[in-house]
Design brief:
This protein is mainly alpha-helical. It is built from four helices and two strands; from the N terminus they run ββαααα. One zinc ion binds next to β2.
Length: 106
């Protein structure tokens, strides 16, 4: 995947999560360059013994390190997505926060 330009607004295509097909919320960018939402990462990647759902790259040691350092979320990309699609992010956040899902500790 190409490296994203910092300033340009992202198209919806670029900001879309390949797992849930929604806007990327708190994107986790894996070493292979694929990005999924944090909750998709936790649901999908962790269930598939920590392989990228798109290219099957094993990301287990990377994920352990990132969660230990609390840097799973690609803050730069997240910022860019929020700037590019504030309305969609807000709606998804509201949807998500509306659900009373118990948060699992990282
Ligand atoms: Zn997702
Ligand atoms: Zn991948």
């Amino acid at each position: 995947m190409k490296v994203l330009p910092r300033s340009a607004p992202l198209s919806l295509e670029e900001a879309r999560c390949p797992v849930c097909s929604e806007i990327l919320l708190e994107p986790v960018t894996m070493p292979c360059g694929h990005s999924v939402c944090l909750h998709c990462f936790q649901r999908t990647v962790k269930l598939t013994s920590l392989c990228c759902p798109l290219c099957r790259l094993r990301v287990s040691s990377w994920a352990r390190k990132q969660s230990r350092e609390k840097s799973l979320v690609n803050a730069e990309l997240w910022e860019l997505i929020r700037l590019s699609h504030p309305e969609r992010c807000r709606r998804r956040m509201e949807q998500r926060d509306g659900q009373t899902v118990k948060k699992t500790s990282k």
